[in-house]
């Protein structure tokens, strides 16, 4: 059974880089034809797609975040990661990792990241 | 690209049916049969209720159904139950490098 687990710091200082990792179990990132992506949800607000990486390595990003985001894959660890640079308080959110084909998504449980000094 | 448009709130009494709409454009909802609906209870991760416009994942009640007409997709919940009270989000595949759009979410209140 597929399981996705986010991990990373719960607190990041303004202007620094937010880094999260998603550990995948029950499937191999490199052998299946899926997208592996990140979605966030600010407190009390809706869902926002951040970006995804296809199993082949191609990446896709939300245009509003493209200049600050990198999504990458580590096939040796069966993990994928998110880096969001130059964060501000507006980046405070629950961050979810997902496996998806088009928009049929399986979700991790989420990781709250607060941006504050 | 703008988010998909959903009503902010809908309500219904137990046993009734409600429909939530999700309006996009010909570049997303209208152009592909890749629309999903998610239910989210407070403090929980979203749960897939409908995918590819009208397909239900295994384990999802047949009280949930999806459809699409033109640039608007719809989620219908029949026989409303208290457990259906939650936020509902639509999502669509979109052309170009953007890939994924979400609606702003609809809060369903079971009266």
Count up the helices of chain A: 0
Distance between the termini of chain B: 35 Å
Supply the helix-strand structural class of chain B.
mainly beta
Quote the beta fraction of chain A. over 45%
Quickly give the structural class of chain A: mainly beta
Biggest interface, chains and residue tallies:
A-B, 23 and 26 residues
Envelope shape of chain B: globular
In percent, how helical is the residue content of chain A? under 10%
**Main sheet summary of chain A:** 7 strands, mixed
What is the helix content of chain B?
Answer: under 10%
Rounded radius of gyration of chain A (Å): 13 Å
Could you state the oligomeric state of the chains shown? Answer: heterodimer
Order of helices and strands of chain A: EEEEEEEEEEE
Q: Major sheet of chain B: size, sense and barrel closure?
A: 6 strands, mixed
**Which segments of chain B are poorly predicted (pLDDT under 50) over 5 or more consecutive residues?**
none
Describe the structure.
The complex is a heterodimer of chains A (117) and B (111). Chain A is mostly beta strands. Chain A contains no helices and eleven strands. In chain A, the strands form two sheets. In chain A, strands 2, 4, 5, 6, 9, 10 and 11 form a seven-stranded mixed sheet that branches. Chain A has a four-stranded antiparallel sheet with strand order 1-3-8-7, with no helix packed on it. Chain A starts with a strand and ends with a strand. The relative contact order of chain A is 0.32. Chain B is built from no helices and nine strands. In chain B, strands 1, 3, 4, 7, 8 and 9 form a six-stranded mixed sheet that branches. In chain B, strands 2-6-5 form a three-stranded antiparallel sheet, with no helix packed on it. Chain A binds chain B through residues 35, 37, 39, 46-49, 52, 60-63, 96, 100, 102-110, and chain B through 1, 3, 32, 34-36, 38, 45-48, 51-52, 89, 91-93, 97-105.
């Amino acid at each position: 059974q597929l399981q996705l687990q986010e991990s990373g710091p719960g607190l990041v200082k303004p202007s620094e880089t937010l880094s999260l990792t998603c550990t995948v179990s029950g499937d191999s990132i490199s052998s299946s034809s899926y997208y592996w992506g990140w979605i966030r949800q600010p407190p009390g607000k809706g869902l926002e797609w951040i970006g995804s990486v296809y199993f082949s390595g191609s990446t896709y990003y939300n245009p509003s975040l493209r200049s600050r985001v990198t999504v990458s894959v580590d096939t040796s660890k069966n993990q994928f990661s998110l880096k969001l640079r130059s964060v501000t308080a507006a980046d405070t959110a629950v961050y979810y990792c997902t496996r998806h084909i088009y928009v049929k998504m399986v979700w991790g449980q989420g990781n709250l990241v607060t941006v504050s000094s | 690209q703008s988010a998909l448009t959903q009503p902010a709130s809908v309500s219904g009494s137990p046993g009734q049916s409600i429909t939530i709409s999700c309006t996009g454009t010909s570049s997303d909802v209208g152009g592909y049969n890749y629309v999903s609906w998610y239910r989210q209870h407070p403090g929980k991760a979203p749960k897939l209720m409908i995918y590819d416009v009208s397909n239900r994942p295994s384990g999802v009640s047949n009280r949930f159904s999806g459809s699409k007409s033109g640039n608007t997709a719809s989620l219908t919940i029949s026989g409303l139950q208290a457990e259906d009270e939650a936020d509902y989000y639509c999502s669509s595949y979109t052309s170009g490098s953007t890939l994924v759009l979400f609606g702003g979410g609809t809060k369903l209140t079971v009266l």
